[in-house]
Amino acid sequence: MDIVHLLYGIPVLGWLFQVAGYLIAVIPTSAPIIMRSVPPLALGALCGVMCERSGVVNIGIEGTMLAAAFTGWVVGIAAAAVFGQGTPLLFGFTLPLAIALAAAIVVAVLVSLLHAWLSITVKADQIISGTIINIAALGVTGYLNTIIAATSPTSAGSFTTLTLPKDVTNLPFVGWIFAALFNQGPITLSVLVCVIGLQIWLFRSRWGLRTRAVGEHPKAAETVGIDVIALRYRNVVMAGVFAGLGGAYLSMEAGNSFQANMTAGRGFIALAAMILGRWTPIGAWASALLFALFLTLGQTIKFVPPTGDISVLLTGVPGQFYDALPYLVTIVVLAGVVGRSIPPAADGQPYTREAAT
Amino acid sequence: MRGITKRYPGVVANDGINLTVRPGEIHALLGENGAGKTTLMNILYGLARPDSGEILLDGEPVTIAGPSDAIARGINMVHQHFMLVPVLSVADNILLGEETMANRVFLDRNESRQRIIELGRRFGFEVDPDVKVGSLSVGWQQRVEILKALYRNARILVLDEPTAALTPAETEEIFAVLRRLAAAGHSIIFISHKLYEVLEIADTITVIRRGRVVGERDPRQTNEDDLAELMVGREVQLVVDRGESHPAAVTLTVDGLRVKDDRGSEVVRGVSFEIRAGEILGIAGVAGNGQDELVEAIVGLRRPESGKVVLDGHDATNWSPRSMTAAGLGYVPADRHRFGLVLPFPIADNLVLTTYFRRPFANGVVRNDAAIDRNGDEAVQRFDIRTPSAQVPAGTLSGGNQQKIVVAREFGRDLRLLVLDQPTRGLDVGSIEFIHRQIIAKRDAGVAVLLVSAELDEVLEMSDRIGVMYRGEIVSIVDGRTADKEKVGRLMATGAQLEAAEAAGKVAAA
Amino acid sequence: MSSPAATARVSGVRTMLARAWSSVSISVLSILLALVAGAFFIIVSQLVEPKGTLNLLRPFDAYRSLFLGAFGGVNAIVETLVQTTPLVLAGLAVAVGFRAGLFNIGASGQVTLGALGSVVVGIALADQPGYIAIPAAVLAGTAVGALYGFIPGFLKAVSGAHEVVTTIMLNSIAGSILAALVSGPLKVPNSPSPVTRDIGNAAFPILIGTDGHLGLLIALVMAFAMWWLLFRTTRGFEIRTVGSNPDAARYAGMRPKLVITWTMTLSGALAGLAGACVALGILHHMQSSFATSIGFDAIAVALLARSNPIAVLPSALLFGAMRAGSNRMQIEARIPPELINVLVGITLLFIIATPAFRVLLRRIGTRPSLVAAPTLPGTAGGTAGPPP
């Protein structure tokens, strides 16, 4: 403990240590808040990993998630109007919610299909394609939201969370980890499954091996008989499922309605998480945790005010600083890491089949 | 393969080729760059379809739809540029496309690992399946490629220039492997341009020149001279008579230059030569022996590791391209689409790419469009560039005319040194003749010319002195007037002095 | 009269016209299709309304109001011009970036901070005579925008961080900066909502009608200035070369990293200028939320104009007209102005699917363009090659 106080005492650097110390100390209590922000980041990053490992850059994750969030909300309203609210099963699943979730995923898959078509077949610039998808999604969802919100609709509600028995969550030292990870709704729980599943799939299955080859050296893959184009289409479309879950989370688990521009840049932060995580699912998830920490730092500070020298600094800073913090961190990460973190070698380059003429 | 013919735009790659390969035979396909060997094998492997002719396996005519079809039929190809994924392990690379499955979803790495180690042992080498391919030496990567084929139960193994990047020792090791494969009943087609290797390893040699089979030989009944003559032909196709040269003072000195390529291997290994004003030094050599990197180092697009480049007495070793240009360099790059032209820009703009900031094309910051256009029209006239106007984008022109733009730009300045890398590759005869005349005119005007070309005819026709580049070194410089085509061809393909080779009885490359 | 040179020149002109026609026709087609899609949205959204009466003619009402709102009468036209002004400048910002191969998605943030910067200086000089206050405020806005463009440009040159993501992050950060400053040190004391003081004499003079301010002139001048820069100066040549072929640019002696840094700075400056025009010409103060669609509209403007500064003028006019007319459309036809966002987004989708269009058109039998496809900046495969 003395060493700690020594570090804290250093004139300017000491503050950095104090902040770090505060962050570490506050994690157990603020974990639930942090975990609330993880799913869109993690799922968005998984979508990115799957696309880029196949060699397709997907900037449009933001728009895909937004479209999914909106669809989930709207279809939920419609289904609730048609079928009634229904009786909640496990996790609060009702018929309308189930239909809404399915619809959200379908829409995300369709948007991904659009991006796949533009990138792979039309061979448009993949970054422009993604950006345009974002703009279009923002416009369409914003407009439809205005129309629909004006009718004061009743949403289908949202998913409920699991509650572990107190004996588990009150365990010393590790209890809070269980609480943070598992006292969550179905989509959040699925994140863990997705991360582990994708990690195994990417590195231990046949399709994962082929995917990685196609992303690194598509010509080599073609010469052993792999259909590069078909594989890229399949992967990008399936990656849409992750983005769909991420978007659905926002309007169906974290809340029960949609607001314009609900994703607020999370799709881009997810890309940074993917890069920081070196294009691996587990790395992306860990990076998402880090970004989520910064995303919620403002709330954490209100919830568990810091003590000591830094408390004045941290609480005195205007609230907008914490709003801007995750974006700032993203920029710093990108600038610092991008050179050193190496993407799949064929990332972003459209592939032309060997002319079998 | 019978009567195989294949045409690409502007060239007949294969013209009625017959090829017969027996089981357990090592059959060599010998020929220069561009002779058509790779095209023929691409057809066999399903990467291309012949325009006419047929392929018979075991006497039965077959159509090969694509690589997977070829592989299924037991035909496997090891490409000249390795088709290996650097970040994946040896085992993963071998498995790719032909994965051993533990069940529907998961790979069975253990079983495949065993098989790989066994296969390697059977043919004489120990390989670690878990090593990342990117960290292997080229020789070992070659072995991995061969293992890839064996893993798929190849009956016919096609190797495209397998020893291009190997040391002599590694070459011997690979040969040992190949002999064992042949003894085990596999057929091997060995594509090469290296005479002595082919003589050493092959059971039968088929020589291809300009898309046609010009001869089939038993190695025991032939020698290097005979093969060299078949490969390059006796007559030199002279297009232009270059006349006498009158070399004056030394303009360019290259001394002990060492250059690395993009992958970090040293590809120029201590090159030294001089060029005088008013003479043409031609560098002959099969593409890939370091010529491109040598040229890039001289013009300033690549940093040499050590050595010196001296231009007109100034140490120009680390000069930028702009400084070199200002000092009187003209450069015609091998890859005209990458370094030579901006394809979407009009011809007139491309013509001033290196001088756009100088008078008369600009006054300070403002461009002088009238001068640029005038220059464009003049150049189009003078160099006979076939185009509706000088305002058309360069990308719409044919290859020959695009090259003329580069030539017009570089030749239109006051030059001290002219460096040309593969200047007439892919061009029609008319353009070739035109460019050759321009080069000779420059020489006669007192410019020092460095001409790098893989086209032996071009080098012989144009050069006052000829250097042969092999494995990053200049192995010999001969006088252009007395150079013998076969001798130079052999130097290109073997890299050794004729006398030393005869003395040693067998050639050992530098 | 057929000297070979003359016929060559005539067919040269003809090929250029064919190329221009090919570009314009795709743009026009994209907009028309977007309008059709918009009509579809209008019809569908009727189903949602509680009094859901399905009126298939509603889109026509909507578009008529839109058009009248934009061009029906002097006031409407002036309003259209006012809305067009910042779109011209921001569109130029994005277009110049595209020319260097850069994606400036951060126009929104640069506009915001440019507006803020100009207001801050404007407030400080509010009592000075106009000919001092106005140029100073304009310069301030431009400078702040330039700085905000320099950051992503520099980061890209030095670290390779892709400007698409960094500029979008900077957009959000700009919003936070604005909110923090306007709610904090710049706030007018005792006011119910966070606003700054008025800029007094730094406001733009009105040139036309009741609202047509100086910005109109500035935008027009800048469009020609940017055209002149790109096509008549050596610097512009460097920008375009680096954007088309960085390797050839290196051989030509240019320094791609330097070029992209100062091009991004220039781009930010133009966007900052756009913000200054909005603040000094219309708002005359700042609020803590500056919700603007200018950023994304600018992307559409630049893409539709194929990054040609002169073409940015009609392109910006199109979108400016839509924005201006949306008010009347909302009042008369009761369609929310957010429809314009839909139209913008869908137009962009059709533009980027252009190569697919061309193939489709060829199958239907339209005469293919005589020369290579017009390059959409940044479109892979956009570098001209012989017609496929």
Please compute the radius of gyration of chain B using only Cα atoms. 25 Å
Give the integer mean of the pLDDT values of chain C: 83
The largest beta-sheet of chain C arranges its strands as 1-2
How large is the share of residues in beta strands of chain B? 15-25%
How many strand units of chain B? 22
Written as H for each helix and E for each strand, in order along the chain, the element string of chain C is HHHHHHEEHHHHHHHH
Look at the helices and sheets of chain C and give the structural class.
mainly alpha
Mean pLDDT of chain B: 83
CATH topology descriptor of the largest domain in chain C: ABC transporter involved in vitamin B12 uptake, BtuC
Going by CATH, the homologous superfamily of the largest domain in chain B would be P-loop containing nucleotide triphosphate hydrolases
Give the strand content of chain C: under 5%
Rg of chain C, rounded, reads: 22 Å
In helices, the fraction of residues of chain C equals over 70%
Instruction: Indicate the low-confidence ranges of chain B by residue numbers.
Output: 498-503, 505-510
How many structurally independent domains of chain C? 2
Intertermini distance of chain B: 37 Å
Keyword list:
A: ABC transporter involved in vitamin B12 uptake, BtuC, globular, B: 510 residues, Rossmann fold, 3 domains, six-stranded mixed beta sheet, disordered C terminus
